[in-house]
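User: Sequence in, structure out. Go.
Assistant: Echoing your sequence, followed by the structure tokens.
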Amino acid sequence: MRTVTRRYRWSLSSLLVFTLLSMCFPLRVHADGGAPNLAYVSGTSSGVSVIDVLQGRVTKRISVAGDPHTILLSLDGRLLYVTQPGLGQVSVILAETGRPVCIARLPGDPAFLALDQYRNILYAAGNGAARVTALDSTTCAVRHVFKMESPVYALAVAVAATGSSVIHQLLVAGMGAMAIFDGLTEQQLGNIPIPNGPQYLSLPPGETVYVTTRQGAVDAVDIRTRAVNQLLTGGVFGPMDYDALTGEVYVPDEKHNLLAVLTPVFAGTALPKEPLRVIHIDAPPEAVAITNDGQLGFIALRGGKVVMLDLPRRQITYTVDVGGTPHFVITGLYPPSTHITPPKASAKPASTHEMIASNKLVIVACVLAIVLLVLVLILLLQRRQTRKVGRQRRRPSRQ
């Protein structure tokens, strides 16, 4: 009974450690959760087509006008965020029903999105205006407008815990450089020149940002040192994605009908020979989505088809006809079936100072909780050692 009790105490302690670490130091999150149920494809005949992964067929069509381009999902798969450059707007849609929650009409033919899940901010931009608009991700209310020096070609968000603070950064690909903004203070932190003009961005965990260029190259940019290294040339590269476990980056090459798989680039190490391998496809790939567990890949092809790849076996599992001209593909969970009342657009968003204060309070609370947990573990260890010594003293000596 004592053994069972001690095991229970240690199991409970381990659970507490895991829970605290998960709360205080969250990893980068993804909509698909590692094992997705659905794949969403924009630019199809209906606007957005939804593929059931297990069934291997389109099970839902969401009517979205305005030639939808970039699409993103909320963390729970409840909300679908869509750019509609043909209408000059961004829409938030209920993924289950296709019903609109809110709409933001923006200048510049918005085609690109980035989402800060922790702060509920949706960034939108297009290459028809030199600006990035920060929206409330549930009400579409405008929180801030970032003035740029040129039209915008891509967006990305980086969130990381460093020491006693949480960093929220917005990366913006402009005409000839990548600008970096502090998401909390909304101040520009730097401007990194990118030869041949940046196009699409991908941010695996770490300090390296992968950037395609409009002149047919793929670069690795070290955020810390701001060094730019060219990895690939001679292609026409589309929106990228990465394997969250291995860090490998998948780059669609429309010119050569293939996916180039890149070895992760780490700061302070020699550049690997790229690509690590290639995956040949029968038609030009427009975009790719890789599940977090690295098991599946979804490739949107020119001509209105989507291919699902079994990545470990490196073979095609099935092909789905979605029609239209696919622009973007993402994966996600089945959306929750609970009824949602769209929030009122007049809801007052939290200020930057409130968000900073909230982050500080969370960090302080986590530190105190971890200190308390360490003390509990020390007490358990001391009690275990005391009992062990007591048993040894009571044990009769052998003559």
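User: And one key feature?
Assistant: DSSP finds two helices and 28 strands in the chain.
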